[in-house]
UniProtKB/TrEMBL annotation:
It catalyses: 2 5-aminolevulinate = porphobilinogen + 2 H2O + H(+). GO terms for molecular function: porphobilinogen synthase activity; zinc ion binding. Its cofactor is Zn(2+). The keyword Lyase applies. Belongs to the ALAD family. This is Delta-aminolevulinic acid dehydratase. GO terms for biological process: heme biosynthetic process. The lineage of its organism: Bacteria, Bacillati, Bacillota, Clostridia, Eubacteriales. NCBIfam families: PRK09283.1.
Amino acid sequence: MELTKRPRRLRGTDTIRRLCRETRLSPDSLIYPLFVDETLSGRRPIPSLPGQYHYGLDALPQAVEECLQAGVNSCLLFGLPKEKDPLGSSAWAENGVIQQAIRQIKQHDPDFYVVTDVCLCEYTDHGHCGALRGREVDNDPTLELLARTALSHAQAGADLVAPSDMMDGRVAAIRQTLDQAGFESLPILSYSAKYASAFYGPFRAAAGSAPSFGDRRGYQMDPHNRNEALKECALDVEEGADLLMVKPALAYLDVIREVSQAFPLPLAAYSVSGEYAMIKAAGQAGLIDEHRVMCESALSIFRAGADILITYFAKELAQAIRSGEIG
Ligand code: PBG
């Protein structure tokens, strides 16, 4: 057969390139993480995450408006409580920071979609994600605390609860507690494949949730493993998870790919604080084009198979999608 001289790749105008894009992005797929500080009034820049803020409860309407203006209509809430204790009891307090934040947001705009991170590490004085027995997190007693926390979020008006603690059996425990309280239709987004990652550094500084001793390798996943992620996801599906998550995103694109192909549930990817901070820092140093690297990174995560992206760049990405630059 004679080879034609036709170019291999589609040439022509932007229109044909847009027609043939294999990956489509929408602002509807983006979730913006929001840090709420119970002791704060107004908002204050987060040193470890340039461009991000801690919001006081009174500043949440402004935060919501900024999201909506950019085209982002959902957030993931993290709380910085006034007080911490060994069990993390302010995580499930009726007037805890997250419970108040949910009510505040819903009062401002009932349609703004509120996802809550369900974990204890921001609320325990030792910074681990559960109750301790000696120097280890005690899995089973922690389940009840997590279920209580998720229920309190539901009662305050959360739309979706997202357990990030990685205790065994927490999805089932939360599902059962929610169902018994009449929240059968409230979905669970499980942080199913959450790796013990160095990319969480800036978040822990921002959320004050670094463990005071040891690390989280006892309950988070080993970065060497891929099959283990599939096993974690399968168990979460069995326990009743409605959506799955892989976290971090950029260093785990292979895991996103496999999980997206193996399970017919919506898949979220969390592009975490260290990923954001690296792009920001390199951009600020003039080493890369921050905006373009942000766009290309987000594309790679969707191309790998994610349906939803949780990212500190949500507002900038939504604008890039709206302007037609990507998407
Ligand atoms: C809570 C939690 C963490 C993140 C999300 N939920 C920190 C951790 O596991 O240490 C990290 C998010 C980020 O780095 O942006 N367990």
